[in-house]
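Why run this: before we spend reagent on co-expression, it is cheaper to look at a predicted model of the complex and decide which construct boundaries make sense. The entries below are exactly what would go into the expression plan.
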Amino acid sequence: MLPENSNNIKILAFDIFGTVVDWHGSIVKEIDSLNLEVSSDEFALAWRGGYQPAMQRVRSGELGWTLIDDLHRMILDEILQKFGIETLSEAQKRHLNKAWHRLEPWPDAVEGLGRLKSAYTICTLSNGNIGLLTDMAKNAGLPWDCILSAEVFRKYKPDPDTYLGVAKVFDLAPEDVMLVAAHHSDLAAARECGLKTAYIERPTEYGADQIKDVSPNSANTLHARDIVVLASMLDC
Amino acid sequence: MLPENSNNIKILAFDIFGTVVDWHGSIVKEIDSLNLEVSSDEFALAWRGGYQPAMQRVRSGELGWTLIDDLHRMILDEILQKFGIETLSEAQKRHLNKAWHRLEPWPDAVEGLGRLKSAYTICTLSNGNIGLLTDMAKNAGLPWDCILSAEVFRKYKPDPDTYLGVAKVFDLAPEDVMLVAAHHSDLAAARECGLKTAYIERPTEYGADQIKDVSPNSANTLHARDIVVLASMLDC
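The model came back. Tokens follow.
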């Protein structure tokens, strides 16, 4: 099943939020556990909805370099106000903000990554900060060889310096690296830089009430239902 | 056995060359395998001997930011000339330079790190570059939670930004981090930044012909014969 042009891949770099872990389901659970008078689905979507605009403020230079933990907290403070929640203490807010460190993996992630690790170097390539990704890996049992983050390159995806940065870290050509992600825009930006790409279907990324179109794009090197299937496609 | 002031440690950051892996023994083996007409002991010591002066050229600003892989290659080219070795092809030189990616762990390292990982977040804090440390971990079976490197902070140890950088990555106070190293100078610089410190005895770091003084320094939080003993001291 392995296309001939995938033979030289050395590094598999994974997008994380939505691709490896279920941010929507995990944040919903965290909100539910707080017994707030809000729709946990709407709260999760609003928190994630603030993510791209917050990074855009960094990309545009309006904000200096700011870690995702801090952007998540800025968005959280805004949506707590928007949802009229005034009962949380500072300690509770800090704990809730670290919910992103405790996101749970999709059911196929740990097995799939373990199999891929036997034949490839597997790393993260996430806009999440290093501390967040390390805590998440330890909590969820994600067996990364290396944690790479926008924090290492001081640029947020889809800046080319992030995708090309992975190749540079490992002293490889861009085509020796494959980005694995559940988002076509991320993959398109990686392709522009010469990386190979694999799309992972996550139809419930935004919850069961908002099914995502997971149609293939033939520009990707591979298209897999999940990470276990990707492992089989890559002969692991 | 755990001193009371070690109770809050969250992160164990490890120096690598000499502390976790046996650079002298590994480089000697690589040189021996090439059947060159040189003393492999002297060659290994000369290669390592160029390391601090090369980093000093970066620290002083004489050289711009340069990865250890590239510094290792600059030193290699110099000592090949010094030792009168003219028989290596470019491919052989490139392979030999990556010997630092293949350094073998001290016999206690894999077991000790595995035990420590059960209770702490364990990471590297090495002047080695990320690609080197990742290849080494995969080759030697070192189970890091996270690979931190001078490359992340763009400063070489003993710059305070490296030690404080570890605390910052994990959003912790310096005293929540312990540096583990076989070199008193590295530990002293970490202590200056408020980190806790553990010394590991590696009497044969420079080979069996040049035994290193491994006397304790009472300024360190802990002093352990090896990493397995450190794990026991930290109740792992």
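Chain A has eleven helices and six strands. Chain A has a mean pLDDT of 96. Bring this page to Monday's planning discussion.
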